[in-house]
Amino acid sequence: MRSVYLDYAAGAPLRPAAASVLGDALARGVGNASSVHWAGARARALLEGAREEMAAAIGARPLEVVFTSGATEANNLALAGIAAAAARRLRIAVPATEHASVLRTAEALARAGHDVRVLPAGTDGRTDPDAVTAAAPDLLAVALVNAETGVIQDCAALTAAARRSGARVHLDAAQAAAVLPLDVADLDCDLLTLSAHKVGGPAGAGALYVRGGVALAPLHHGGAQERGLRPGTENVAALAAFAAALGAVGASLPEEATRLRALTARLREAIAALAPESRVAGDTAGEGIGAMRGRAAVAAHGARAPHILDVVFPDLAGESLVTALDLEGIAVSAGSACAAGASEPSHVLQAMGWDRAAAARAVRFSVGWASSTADVDAVADVLPRILARAGARRGEAAWPAHAS
User: Fold this and answer.
1) Per-residue pLDDT reduced to its tens digit, 39-83
2) How far apart are CA 367 and CA 376, in angstroms?
3) Cα 100 off chain centre by
4) Of 338, 370, 380, 390, which residue is the catalytic one?
5) Would you give the DSSP letter of residue 399?
6) 189 carries an active-site annotation
């Protein structure tokens, strides 16, 4: 059985450039970057080289890049670090569609006495800038690209709205970095989160951009690593591989984004032919997937990142379809990997107005650097018999409710 991996939004396979750097670093042996001897100096040179590469990739200065263990830690450090450094009650605004690492951190800050405003989402998954203006936050935290739906937020408008109340702005770019060019000056953000394994680096490495002059308190206490913001011995080999992966992304854009969009468009067309009642979460129009053709489909797809297709199937539980595809050797997801195993349907889709039943029928397909047309066609090959077994042939099922 051929193995097909279509879960890049959960984690991308290691890129050759990253594997080469990682293998070389591990083979040579990496010392402690804080040590003063030759091995420490070698590790420190590798670490700072990675920091310089990463800073260049996002238009930052090296001193503005803080290495972490991943995006979850970076998001926690951004929100909790700003709150702790402020030493006063903050008003914090977060969209309802955010990743759990942002929402749960915001909840913890609310319990600590901060005024947290959860902003509603439209049926297209986007947050209205007027909602940000009304919230008048001290801190706005928003994802550039939603990890489940691929919806691209209008961060320019949201940031402009937040600046009216003098807010700091944190952008979670973990899902965006593999498919969109990033420049912190253009984005006008104070903090920005990156994740290694989303761009084809090793898991367990991340970074937080912290604009110069932004006061941030550490989550942990210990040594002086990462300017005291993230104590602990750095994973030098993984971070060097992370920088190599991010560099490989930058070298491939925008052509790679165009290729990925063609793959998800091909998959969309295949699903439309087999299950026309299905819908794509985050489309800017409400028609079923089978009704979206030509210019309308292109416009709706363009409002989302090129690598993610989140499809809500009629009368077929998402987890059931994920399992059925897995038995055929195809790896996909029923939502964010960080929510895997949760009994609740997607909070993202529910925030967008889908009812619980429909939210439980979503399956996320996501492609990446090693994906091919053959991978996408493998889904089209096996989906007919899976849908037939589930009794969900074309036109047989009534469409589940989608609130307006």
Assistant:
1) 999 999 999 999 999 999 999 999 999 999 999 999 999 999 999
2) 9
3) 11
4) 338
5) P
6) no
